[in-house]
Task: inverse folding
């Protein structure tokens, strides 16, 4: 019994760290309606500034005030004003992508500003970290542990008091449901939500400064992992209950403590299962707990005052211009391919080939998010499955790598179909969280195993050999052609799906799953099919990537890439095939161009910041930056070249309040195409 | 088919008869209800002036140069076929959708372009159509939010008790989450606070739609009460008999434009004309159903 307590009790303070972040997530979700992945980054920002200030010899008290009471609220105001205010009435995908953008951007931005040297954790805030205050049973409790527990209990009390207050707490909860309704009752909803962001951001700052001393060095990744583990704790309380979130956090901490104590070190349980427990718990809760399934049920009763979304510009632009653009695009593509095959320097050929391979992976996001309207945060893991399958088959069975890539594609597809089974009843945020749990389980449990992810030095994947043509000895240009052919085939498949029955099923499901089921769409088989096909594309891209790079490690496919991929594709344009290709090429080309910059700006972080800021623009242009720019330029070109009024301003049109807008006859072609092209 | 012409004529006749029935019913009700007609040429100032208002949903224009005035303490019915823009007028007044042209004044004060919450505080109460409630909050929380600014913070509890005594059903379910109420109960919940405290202008959008008949009389009684206490009322209704019965004057909208402003009986004959004009867009199976 004493051993048991000896293992369990140290888990409690550690669980409290999960709980503090989990309660912050619950508070943010309840008062702003945004499930804020950026919370981890906000916490990191305050912890970072606190560490920097303390490191420069400023007292902990003043540093605390600056980092938590000045910087964090300002960050909250900025996030509200610049980002989340504009997407209040958007769909879940917009909110998740924007908050993931925050998660990705802030740490990179900080390291751009302050440099990315190792920073050692700051000292404790109030109590002395080293000294033991008392013994619980025979377990010593030090200052760090005591402070964490006291703080989390205090935070629980404060947050419950705020959430249940009759004034601002009630108004914040109401604002989540409908800002417009709240305004009709004479309450300035934007101010209420602004206050909610200040509150939640301050909470993030507090959490960051409290948690920073727990780690030997300050790293953004620790905070991201902590965030995801905290999601599991918050899920125990269905993202609603603060006391249950605390209980969930402590539960995770205690399980971790017990596992670390009882599992033999270096056993598969210790190295494989233990780090994955929070994600396993999250996945189980999402699948099993009915309250988590219908998180997104409340709709704004006044949503019908929003204007309908505009149709894609490719549908409405003038036919003359359409021909011009399509013709020009083809010429440009031919010129580009010929250039790559003749005079482009080798390192750029490699970059562009990588871009084509990424495009294949990104097409999987077009399929699932653009057409299916669902967010999957584990596409990089599927790419990893494809890559490791091809590599292991080549290593152990000497299988030709092209065949290995095909097998990898199939394996990824099968895993995608199996992964879709527990996801069948989920959509929106719970589905995104479940896929994130999958990605983290893959990172922590599956990929570290040497029979999957290969040895620590990396898994060697050969270049293909077709007949006498060896892609290994040949220049990268040969591989470029191979990647181009594969990409064109994949684009054709996606286009085929988009224009076919499945595409219209998906469009129907995106609008209303119940409505689609009522007209005879089999939701389950469609969902499994799309997940599986999307995993196939990701796996194929992953296999090609591995063969191009020739060495891959699990770190090439960890969950952060899944997040970055989604942000990049959604920012560029998730609804079209061109969007995925532009995203793939843009992603690598921007990185390569920035690598010419001196010092810390060339390190790659800037590219991620740029794309993450792109995700922030997503707020104002939900169709993607490229699509938005296309619309702007098309309208400009139509005005200048064709001397005609831009489209999209049909004459008299009546819209019944609350009902579906009547489709004006002149818009019917575009409406039809919207269904077709998703 | 040979019979189709006959059937069409029959349907038309039936509708005309329905309109006539409505009119006589409306007359009858007007005499016995508590609604007092405002004399035309009354010296009372305007409560709500809508002048030359246009509005659109994104690129889709929904209102064209809409103008009408409601005097203080007057009741005006806004009627028109489905999709005529009736709800859009209400949304434009309260700033839920932007007014692209024209102006809106409340009690002589310019409110065009103000945020919705300021318009609400200027004395405009808008009860949107449907179940306009916070489904995740409890019944009491819904009422509290709605009453807090309207009756003043210190008098919220008083107004709450009054709402409970008027609609005991709400008191019984005060701790229940509003989303779990039936459709009719949710509608009552969204109406109740607007009927407790008088305001400058009260806009009710499809007041009776979805409301249980048992509560209809209570709701109209309360509406008459706030009206008597000086609230100008804009009644947006599909059920035009009831609306015309209690209105001092009426506005008929069609395809986003005002096509009639005047007496309720005049509006009824315009409505009748719209029915008999093919393609006018009055939704089958006719008004008053």
Result:
């Amino acid at each position: 019994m004493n051993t048991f307590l000896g293992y369990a009790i140290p888990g409690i303070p550690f669980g409290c760290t999960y709980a503090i972040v989990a309660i912050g997530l619950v508070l943010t979700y309840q008062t702003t309606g945004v499930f804020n992945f950026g919370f981890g980054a906000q916490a990191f920002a305050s912890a970072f500034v606190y560490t920097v200030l303390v490191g420069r010899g400023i007292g902990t008290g003043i540093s605390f005030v600056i980092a938590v009471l000045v910087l964090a609220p300002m960050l909250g105001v900025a996030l509200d004003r610049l980002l989340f205010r504009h997407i209040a009435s958007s769909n879940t995908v917009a909110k998740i992508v924007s908050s993931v953008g925050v998660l990705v951007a802030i740490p990179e931005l900080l390291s751009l500003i302050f440099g990315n040297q190792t920073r050692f954790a700051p000292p404790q805030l109030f109590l002395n970290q080293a000294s033991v205050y008392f013994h619980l049973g025979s377990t010593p409790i030090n200052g760090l542990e005591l402070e964490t527990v006291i703080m989390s209990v205090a935070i629980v009390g404060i947050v419950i008091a705020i959430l249940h207050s009759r004034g601002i707490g009630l108004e914040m909860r109401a604002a989540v449901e409908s800002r417009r309704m709240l305004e009709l009752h004479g309450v300035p909803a934007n101010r209420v939500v602004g206050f909610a962001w200040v509150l939640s951001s301050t909470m993030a700052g507090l959490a960051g400064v409290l948690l920073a001393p727990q780690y030997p060095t300050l790293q953004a990744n620790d905070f991201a992992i902590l965030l995801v583990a905290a999601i599991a704790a918050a899920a125990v309380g269905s993202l609603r209950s603060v006391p249950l979130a605390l209980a969930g956090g402590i539960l995770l901490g205690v399980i971790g403590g017990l596992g670390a104590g009882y599992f033999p070190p270096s056993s598969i349980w210790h190295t494989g299962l233990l780090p994955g427990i929070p994600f396993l718990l999250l996945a189980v809760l999402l699948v099993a707990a009915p309250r988590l399934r219908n998180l997104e049920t409340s709709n704004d009763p006044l949503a019908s005052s929003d204007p309908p979304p505009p149709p894609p510009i490719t549908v409405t632009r003038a036919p003359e211009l359409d021909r011009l653009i399509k013709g020009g695009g083809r010429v440009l593509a031919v010129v580009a391919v010929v250039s790559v095959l003749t005079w482009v320097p080798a390192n750029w050929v490699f970059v562009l080939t990588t871009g084509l391979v990424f495009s294949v992976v990104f097409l999987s996001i077009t399929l699932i998010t653009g057409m299916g309207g669902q967010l999957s945060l584990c596409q990089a893991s599927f790419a990893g499955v494809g890559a490791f399958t091809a590599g292991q088959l080549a290593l152990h069975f000497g299988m030709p790598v092209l065949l290995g890539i095909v097998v990898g594609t199939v394996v990824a597809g099968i895993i995608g179909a199996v992964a879709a089974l527990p996801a069948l009843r989920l959509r929106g945020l719970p589905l995104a969280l479940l896929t994130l749990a999958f990605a983290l389980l893959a990172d922590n449990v599956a990929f570290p195993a040497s029979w999957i992810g290969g040895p620590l030095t990396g898994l060697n994947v050969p270049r293909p050999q077709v007949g006498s043509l060896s892609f290994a000895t040949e220049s990268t240009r040969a591989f470029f052609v191979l990647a181009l052919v594969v990409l064109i085939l994949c684009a054709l498949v996606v286009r085929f799906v988009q224009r076919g029955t499945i595409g219209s099923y998906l469009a129907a499901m995106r609008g209303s799953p119940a409505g689609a089921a009522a007209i005879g769409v089999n939701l389950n088989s469609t969902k499994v099919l799309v997940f599986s096909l999307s995993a196939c594309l990701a796996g194929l891209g992953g296999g090609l990537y591995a063969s191009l790079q020739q060495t891959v490690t699990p770190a090439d496919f960890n969950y952060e890439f899944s997040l970055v991929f989604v942000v990049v594709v959604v920012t560029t344009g998730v609804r079209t095939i061109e969007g995925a290709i532009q995203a793939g090429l843009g992603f690598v080309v921007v990185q390569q161009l920035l690598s010419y910059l001196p010092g810390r700006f060339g390190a790659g972080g800037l590219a991620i910041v740029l794309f993450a800021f792109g995700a922030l623009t997503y707020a104002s242009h939900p169709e993607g930056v490229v699509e938005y720019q296309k619309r702007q330029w098309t309208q400009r070109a139509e005005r200048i070249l064709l001397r005609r009024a831009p489209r999209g301003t049909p004459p008299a049109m009546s819209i019944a309040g609350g009902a579906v807008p009547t489709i004006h006859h002149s818009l019917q072609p575009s409406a039809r195409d919207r269904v077709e092209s998703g | 088919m040979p019979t189709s012409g006959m059937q069409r004529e029959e349907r038309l006749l039936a509708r005309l008869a329905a309109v006539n029935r409505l009119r006589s019913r409306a007359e009858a009700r007007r005499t016995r209800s508590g609604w007092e007609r405002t004399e035309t040429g009354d010296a009372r100032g305007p409560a709500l002036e809508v002048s030359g208002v246009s509005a659109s949903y994104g690129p889709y224009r929904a209102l064209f140069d809409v103008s009408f005035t409601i005097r203080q303490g007057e009741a005006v019915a806004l009627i028109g076929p489905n999709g005529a823009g009736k709800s859009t007028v209400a949304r434009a007044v309260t700033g839920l959708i932007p007014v692209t042209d024209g102006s809106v004044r409340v009690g002589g004060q310019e409110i065009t372009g103000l945020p919705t919450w300021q318009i609400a505080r200027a004395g405009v109460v808008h009860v949107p159509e449907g179940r306009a409630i916070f489904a995740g909050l409890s019944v009491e929380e819904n009422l509290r939010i709605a009453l807090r600014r309207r009756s003043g913070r210190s008098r919220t509890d008083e107004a709450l008790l009054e709402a409970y005594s008027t609609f005991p059903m709400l008191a019984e379910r005060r701790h229940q989450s509003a989303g779990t109420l039936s459709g009719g109960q949710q509608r009552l919940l969204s109406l109740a606070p607007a009927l407790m405290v008088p305001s400058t202008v009260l806009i009710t959008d499809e007041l009776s739609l979805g409301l249980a008949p048992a509560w209809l009389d209570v709701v109209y009684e309360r509406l008459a009460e706030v009206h008597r206490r000086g609230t100008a009322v804009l009644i947006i209704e599909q059920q035009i008999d009831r609306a015309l019965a209690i209105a001092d004057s009426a506005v008929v909208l069609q395809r986003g434009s005002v096509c009639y402003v005047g007496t309720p009986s005049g509006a009824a004959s315009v409505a009748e004309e719209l029915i008999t004009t093919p393609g006018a867009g009055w939704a089958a199976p006719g008004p008053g159903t």
Summary: The beta strands of chain A are 132-136, 139-142, 459-460, 465-466, 469-470, 551-552. The interface with chain B takes residues 166, 170-171, 173-174, 176-178, 180-190, 297-298, 301-302, 305-308, 310, 648-659, 661-662, 664 of chain A (CB under 8 Å).
